[in-house]
Amino acid sequence: MESIPRAIGRRLAAYLSKPRPGYERLSRLPLQDIMDTLQPADIVLVDGNSHISTAIKYLTQSTWSHACLYVGAEKADVEQPSLIEADLNDGVTQVPLRKYEQFNLRICRPVGLSAEDKASIIAFARARVGHVYDLKNIFDLARYLIQSPAVPVRYRRDLITFGSGEPTRAICSTLIAEAYQEVGYPILPEFIRVENKKGEAVSMARHFTHYVPGDFDLSPYFSIIKPTIEHGFSLSAPPQSE
Question: What is the tens place of the pLDDT at every residue in 96-139?
């Protein structure tokens, strides 16, 4: 029998996943062009339009509210399940790029990562397909949607609860960060400044649960990939639209 907190968490997750009106996809790039550009272990960032996306973007001060790991497909087809993600309702699953056709997307690519490390990262993520989403953090996110408090920018990110850290539970960015940390690849500088119980500022190693989707965009170790630039374009010909 499902526990009461879990049942409440699932209902809250369903509400938070509902789309908000007024979202606009700014990119006019064909989805297939994005698919043709992706390489194994690339990270696809999503500018979501759900209630929880609004909370994540507010607290992290970022455009990006969701992250997926590209693990490859038999052919470059937007219908092929090629992305591993941790979804609020479905847990860790493998989904097609088509799922995010109506959203603004960004490709982040690790620089200098070996083929062996890419394979290890993908294997790590695939081994976690079927794990459930860590609902521990959604109550805090919901609170900021309901109350809409005025929180100083420098404190917003610190107010996110990053989950329980249990091995069978995950949220989108921490799943990917943990996979990268397993092969020793950095995302942001290794140490962060935090306050101890005495209120003193101390340095501590950055744990994979400290990462949010926008960190891959800000990372000095990932390149931002633009499909139009990667494939070449003509200044005399207008770009094709979908």
Answer: 999 999 999 999 999 999 999 999 999 999 999 998 876 665 55
CATH 3.90.1720.10 fits 4-19+28-230, yes or no: yes
Q: Where are the domains of the chain?
A: 4-19+28-230
Nearest residue to 70 via CA among 222, 219, 210, 206: 222
**Cα dist from 20 to 24, 33, 136, whole Å:** 11, 27, 23
Distance from C-alpha of 67 to C-alpha of 229, rounded to nearest angstrom = 22
Q: What is the DSSP letter of 238?
A: P
Q: Which two tokens stand for residue 178?
A: 């943990």
Q: How far apart are CA 50 and CA 166, in angstroms?
A: 25
- Look at residue 211 in the predicted model and tell me its pLDDT: 83
User: Which residue(s) pair with 202 in the sheet?
Assistant: 194
**CA atoms of 194 and 174, how far apart (whole Å):** 19
